[in-house]
Amino acid sequence: MIQQIVFIILAALTIGSALGVIVVRHTVYAALFLVLTFVASAGLWLLLEAEFLALVLVLVYVGAVMVLFLFIVMMLDTDTQSLRQGLVRYAPLGVVVALIVFAEIGYVVYSREMGVSFGTPLPRAGDFSNTRELGQAIYTAYGFPFEIAGVILLVGIVAAIMLTLRRRQGVRHQNIAKQVRVNAKRGRLRIVHMPSESRTGEKNP
């Protein structure tokens, strides 16, 4: 009974924070809602006795990926007003994608052919390691999709770097080559001789 109550609370928190990611106007608040979504999802993994996945979700995504995401959001200074102008134009495509996702979720939930169990996890022996079972599943049956996921993440990192290197008006950029060419005698310091002035504004000889 207690496990069901905790599951309902965590599930409602996950859904509510996920909706907050796409509803709030400020991108930083959306990132914070995403952090809350990850933490609540980690709690659901704990209920499923998948401690390794819960720890990885908190340490990697919340502790590393979200910090990097916040850094990129604050550094890019995205113009959210211009992005919202095309929201209505892409709304039909978003609705179609959402319907496809809901159809896939419904197929998984109501299909008995996939062998998915939605009941209470079976008790395991004391020496059972979900980390070992997960590693065997990833590097045997799902080795190729795992490599594809790594390539997709690499492409995302490269794309983020290219976005940060774009030129924008009104922003000063560092020129490493120009800085290296500067020496102590040229371009580093300029001395200007000016006559001193007294408090009354008269120039002293």
Secondary structure blueprint with pairings:
Layout: H1 2-23, H2 27-47, H3 51-76, H4 80-85, H5 87-110, H6 130-141, H7 143-164, H8 176-181
What would your notes on this structure say?
The chain folds into three domains: 1-79, Up-down Bundle (Four Helix Bundle (Hemerythrin (Met), subunit A)), CATH 1.20.120.1200; 88-117; 129-165. It contains eight helices and no strands. 68% of the residues lie in helices and 0% in strands. The radius of gyration is 28 Å and the shape is elongated. It is mainly α and 205 residues long.
End-to-end Cα distance, whole Å, is 94 Å
Q: State the fourth-level CATH superfamily of the largest domain.
A: NADH-ubiquinone/plastoquinone oxidoreductase chain 6, subunit NuoJ
Radius of gyration: 28 Å
Instruction: Please write the CATH class name of the largest domain.
Output: Mainly Alpha
- Tell me about the biggest sheet? none
Number of strands: 0
Instruction: Report the CATH architecture of the largest domain.
Output: Up-down Bundle
Helices and strands, in N-to-C order?
HHHHHHHH
Please identify the structural class as seen in this structure: mainly alpha
State which percent range the strand residues make up: under 5%
List the uncertain runs. none
Q: What does the average pLDDT come to?
A: 78
